[in-house]
Write a structure and sequence with these properties.
By secondary structure, the protein is an alpha+beta fold. 44% of the residues lie in helices and 14% in strands. It has helices at residues 30-36, 41-53, 80-86, 92-110, 117-151, 158-163, 170-179, 228-239, 256-262, and strands spanning 16-17, 28-29, 64-66, 73-75, 77-78, 113-114, 183-185, 193-195, 204-211, 219-226. Helix 1 packs across helix 2. The relative contact order is 0.10.
Length: 263
């Protein structure tokens, strides 16, 4: 598989970064409008509220608190359309200031920012980290598939499968699967496992054999066996340290025993 990697040998070439506000409606605060038209902020607020009362403004009517160096004040944030309505009664020079300010704001949005060398290197490092993590995940998945191919054979019981997993306490797996509703014991006096409805045809199935004891009536013997999906789930539980393990387990998740057996 061809993997494309970006070169970071020429970090002095600036890359464009656009402001996230490109996709967000720009607004101008009532305080900035007051500064541009050289008016008292309270007078601008009065005009805004009058236009809101007439239903002429489309901006959000909610105010927010803005620090002024002294006591915080309540300001409105207006869209470009609404600011032109608010300053309609002011002089040509004042309206021109508002228009020029809007053009300046739009120019800031359209103008790409230049990335510094440090920022370029950080982006490259994050990209490489993400690539390595993806590669590790792919390799881990490939290892898992290879392990299952060596471990799982059609018709295997859960006991046979778990014998190939290093450290698993095979004698306790049956009780563990009972607790997870994969199996249930249909015998009141001994141990005769059947596949539970939760796991039937999903993780496990049953092999049926008619047994005819000498001098007795024949009966059906059921043997729970793993399906491929059940083996995969058991293997995931093994890697997550969920299966019952022997006290002497060395802490290694291996399946060398199964591979030697297959060889």
């Amino acid at each position: 598989m061809h993997q494309h990697t970006e070169s970071i040998n020429t970090p002095n070439i600036p890359a464009p970064r656009f402001s996230q506000s490109q996709n967000v409606a720009r607004t101008m605060s009532s305080r900035e409008i007051a500064d541009l038209v050289e008016a008292r902020h309270n007078d601008v607020i009065t005009t805004i509220e009058r236009l809101f009362a007439k239903g002429l403004l489309r901006s959000d009517r909610k105010t927010r608190r803005e620090a002024t160096g002294g006591r915080p004040i309540d300001v409105y944030d207006l869209t470009e359309r609404d600011t032109h309505l608010v300053v309609a009664g002011y002089s040509d020079e004042h309206r021109a200031r508002v228009i020029d300010r809007w053009q300046e704001l739009e120019g800031q949005v359209a103008q790409p920012q230049q990335l510094s060398t440090i920022e370029i290197l950080q982006i490259a490092m994050e990209s490489e980290k993400a690539r390595l993590m993806l590669t590790a995940q792919v390799e881990q998945q490939a290892t898992k598939i290879h392990s299952l191919e060596n471990l799982f054979k059609e018709g295997m019981t859960h006991t046979q499968f778990c014998k190939g997993l290093n450290g698993v306490n095979v004698m306790q797996v049956g009780k563990y699967l009972e607790a997870r509703s994969w199996l249930y014991n249909e015998s009141k006096s001994g141990l005769r496992h059947r596949v539970g409805s939760y796991a039937r045809d999903k993780y496990m199935t049953e092999h049926q054999v008619e047994v005819t004891p000498h001098g007795k009536d024949p009966f059906i013997s059921y043997t729970p066996v793993l399906l491929k999906k059940g083996a995969t789930r058991l293997y995931d539980l093994y890697l997550a340290s969920e299966l019952p393990m022997k006290k002497t387990w060395d802490g290694l998740f291996t399946h060398e025993k199964a591979m030697r057996g297959a060889a």
